[in-house]
Structures are given as structure tokens and as C-alpha cells.
Amino acid sequence: MDDILRAGVAVYNAGEYHAAHDAWEAHWLELERGSDDERFLHGLIQFTAAVYHARRGNWSGATGLAESAREYLSVLPATYRGVDVDAVRTALASLRTDPERIERTRPPSLAIDGETLLPGDLEFEAASVAAEVLADEYDRYDEAVVAAGIEFAREELGSARTRFITFVMDFAADDTHRDVIYQRLSEHVERRRQQERDVAGLFD
């Protein structure tokens, strides 16, 4: 759970409020209903959704989500899995009473063990989760290409090769050059696939 938690927090702090919950959703759906982990992720998912709706001017959606997120987080201790839950509850209370404040100030950051993570701070596995949710967020990226890049990167772990690892981590971290990084990743994925087809052809 650590990697998906860190990925979602980093993506949220990068301003990708809608994509952030995708890092958590699949894992959340597998958790025992009513467990602390389930309530924790459910609350964070609704928190990021509330921020997303407030940023888009959907005040009723934002306040409703803020209220239900506070309910999910209400039974948790002040800090849970390194996240300052009290700070999230305070932000949700403010959002519920005045959702338009999101237009006046940047939404509150999330931190784990006091560290406000960004995608560039992530280790490979968490960065791969961030890369997948960011690819899913934008139509201009083919999720299958990014997924293939991640698999090729995993094959590089522990070896001297780092090309695909670098592409995946840069795709997650560098929003300014993400399109160029994706293009290069796509070219290398296709080249790798062609090599695999060529090798397979030798044994047909």
C-alpha cells in the first residue's frame, strides 16, 4: 500500500487532483469494508474529488464530498500511515463551509511523515503507479505504451540498464516535457517490441 499511497499523494501535490484518486481506487476496492485502511483511502479519494469539484466551480458536489470524506476519516487517529489526518479533516471542514476558497488559495498539500511529496521524489514502483494514472488522465497518451514501458523498466531493475526506468520516472515527474518524454518512450517501446518479434520469428 505504501507505493500507491505515495503515488497518489505526489500526483495530488502536483495539481492532478482528478488523477490522484485513481492511484488509490483499485486498491481501495479490494479492502475490507469498514476497515481503517478502507476508510482512510475512501476519505482521501473523496477529499481529492472534493478539491477537484471545487476547482471546477461545482460547489454542491464539493461540499457533499467534503462532508462524506470527513465522516470516513472521523474514526482515524490524528496521523495514519504517516499522513496528517487531522490536517485533512481541517481542510475538509473549511472546504465544506466555503468551497470557493479553493479559487482564492491553493488547495492544502498532503504530506507523508512530514514530507510533501512530488512525483520527482518517488522511487520506481511508486513512480510507475503515478505514470499509469497520468497516462490514463490524458487522451493523448496510450496507456498500453506506458504499461509496456513499465514492464520493460522492471526487467532493468538490478541491471546496468536504466533507459526504460528513466523514461517511466521522467514521464511521471516532468509535466513540462511529458509529451516529448512520452514520444521517446513510445519509440523505444516499439523498437523493443520489434526486437522481440524478430527473435520470435527465428523460432517459427
From TrEMBL:
Signal peptide: none annotated. InterPro entries: DUF309, TTHA0068_sf. It comes from the Archaea. Pfam families: DUF309. This is DUF309 domain-containing protein. It comes from Halogranum amylolyticum.
